[in-house]
Amino acid sequence: MLKQIESAEKIVEEILQKHPNARDNDKILICHVWLAQGWKTSWSSLVWIKDEGLTPESITRCRRKFQEAGKYLGEKRQKRMEEEEKVREWARGKRQGELPF
Q1: pTM score, two decimals?
Q2: Nearest CA-CA partner of 59 in 18, 4, 21, 20
Q3: CA-CA-CA-CA torsion for 32, 57, 51, 47, nearest 10 degrees?
Q4: Residue 99 covered by a domain
Q5: Domain-located, residue 40
Q6: Residue 90 · residue 39 · CB < 8 Å
């Protein structure tokens, strides 16, 4: 089981490195991971043939783990984190008299 988790993390990390569009979109990430595992698919119908492999839940869990550690942040998450930091700075009084946005 531990070996399977390490394998999942390795595959997801490689996909996140090579495909930045998969950082914000779980469906794209899942498709890339399944294709990397040798699944055969038709992109238009998304009919999956193989019965074994990583589940969508395990794939998205790996992505969240990397992003919580600050790696492979998608554009949306990075922008949200920057906005949250502005609000925190403003709340601490670093930007007195200014609105955070």
Answers
A1: 0.64
A2: 4
A3: -50
A4: no
A5: yes
A6: no
